[in-house]
Amino acid sequence: xxxxxxxxxxxxxxxxxxxxxxxxxxxxxxxxxxxxxxxxxxxxxxxxxxxxxxxxxxxxxxxxxxxxxxxxxxxxxxxxxxxxxxxxxxxxxxxxxxxxxxxxxxxxxxxxxxxxxxxxxxxxxxxxxxxxxxxxxxxxxxxxxxxxxxxxxxxxxxxxxxxxxxxxxxxxxxxxxxxxxxxxxxxxxxxxxxxxxxxxxxxxxxxxxxxxxxxxxxxxxxxxxxxxxxxxxxxxxxxxxxxxxxxxxxxxxxxxxxxxxxxxxxxxxxxxxxxxxxxxxxxxxxxxxxxxxxxxxxxxxxxxxxxxxxxxxxxxxxxxxxxxxxxxxxxxxxxxxxxxxxxxxxxxxxxxxxxxxxxxxxxxxxxxxxxxxxxxxxxxxxxxxxxxxxxxxxxxxxxxxxxxxxxxxxxxxxxxxxxxxxxxxxxxxxxxxxxxxxxxxxxxxxx
Length: 447
What we know:
Layout: H1 10-29, H2 36-39, H3 48-51, H4 55-67, E1 76-82, E2 88-93, H5 96-114, H6 130-141, E3 149-154, H7 158-161, H8 164-172, H9 178-188, E4 192-193, E5 199-200, H10 213-234, H11 238-246, E6 251-257, E7 260-266, H12 269-283, E8 296-299, E9 304-306, E10 309-315, E11 322-328, H13 330-343, H14 352-370, H15 376-397, H16 403-410, E12 417-418, E13 421-422
Parallel strand pairs: 1-4
Antiparallel strand pairs: 1-2, 3-7, 3-8, 4-5, 6-7, 9-10, 10-11, 12-13
Helix pairs in contact: 1-4, 1-5, 8-9, 13-14, 13-15
């Protein structure tokens, strides 16, 4: 496809709509799909799951409206959910029709912009994950490379304050089809229906909760990626970078996961502090700014949290060698403990098997995320904590049973099981080293 030319007319678009019809039918029938958007209706009162067998008729009408250019996005329904810090995150839930059109737009736009996105960006991109970002940080902060100053960036209300004019300017640089540009602009300006029923227009931002929003945020934030790439290229080949560093110059690398990012710097604390102002100036081009309270500079020996991991350089036990360790942060451990406490309340489940089914999925997902790190000690602690929380639930649930009877019935061999369901044991999860993939991460649209 010629990137600069208008997109093909109906044949390719019909194929994309057919693909969305299949996905929409899966949304309607897959009970394992638990996202807020799948279970929450927009202002039309329709959830994708409720469409079911009427998906073909629904998509046919939607396709006709798109062909005739009668389609106009509705306002998104605002929904506030609590954040870990006690504040609220405001999501925008689009209507079912808007979700289908946004997903179709994403199918068209994503391959085009993926050709431009740089390797330092990992969030909401195909075949990239949080572990890749952690692995890159581990690689550059290790003693052989010694990027030891860390700028932890926090963008103030990123999804709410992206400048529409700047964002559309970046989209127009790659997309020439006016129909596509018109749809993207219409979604940005669709407006919000708040929880108290007040309609508000949107002059900045792209609502969290929309299928297209993460891609649009990556397009806007790529201005930061490009800035640091130019700084890196300006230093020249490796030998020149080495010479620059030996002379006391600063060298930095960016790792970004959506609106969360860190900049690793080989230089001085003063260089790292000056970098904060430089980053703020770059972000201002798309209407964004750093949060002065939450943006900080730290040394790798002091450690910092990123994407749920705590990353810190420490002396290796029994040696004088210093290594960078990544393991679950205290905040992540506290969050999973709170989740286990919530699930093991006496009134939550009728039978032990119901409790184990729910708890196992939570523990398995958490351990699979953190298994690529120095997590064995944490897994052992979590295993002990969850085991005795379940035992406490059993003792409250079966008040008439003494400890010996309870142990024989539910804890044979000190393994908790009921109805063919056994407790998932975090202590049995094998930890592994996640290798830094650098430029070797495959692009799904590469020839």
